[in-house]
Design a protein that fits this description.
This protein is mostly helical. Helices cover 72% and strands 6% of the residues. The protein has three helices and three strands. It has a three-stranded antiparallel β-sheet with strand order 2-1-3. It is rod-shaped and about 110 Å long. Keywords: Membrane, Transmembrane, Transmembrane helix.
Amino acid sequence: MKICKECGEELEEDCLVCPECLHEVVSMEDVIIKEQSQKDSKEEDKRTETSQVDNNSQNEKNANIYGLVGMIVGIVAFLIGWIMILAGIVLGVIGIVFSALGITKRQECTMNAFAIAGISVSIATVAFLILFWIITASNIGI
């Protein structure tokens, strides 16, 4: 069964033009196929959107982990630096790297507080330990 898309007149199956209004004829199968195609397209868009949201939340979790690791390594570097200066400096640099990764992996405009704290602590630790090393070495006469 065919229907005229302009006037809605029911037509014979082999009709190509509506005898009432002289417009093209569309079959019910064409209408059903078009509606199904639109429905499938909307469902695919929803799946793609959901997948992007999942990826963004995973990236944010990774950014938080990198930032947290950078902050912890920076604090540990400061504490170890009092005993072994060179080890503290190396750990401080590692803390800077992890914190920087936490900042760069962030997708949104908001910053990762752990990463900012980690990079601050790590840079301060490395600067302090290098200065402490220079002062200690000059006092010892190395």
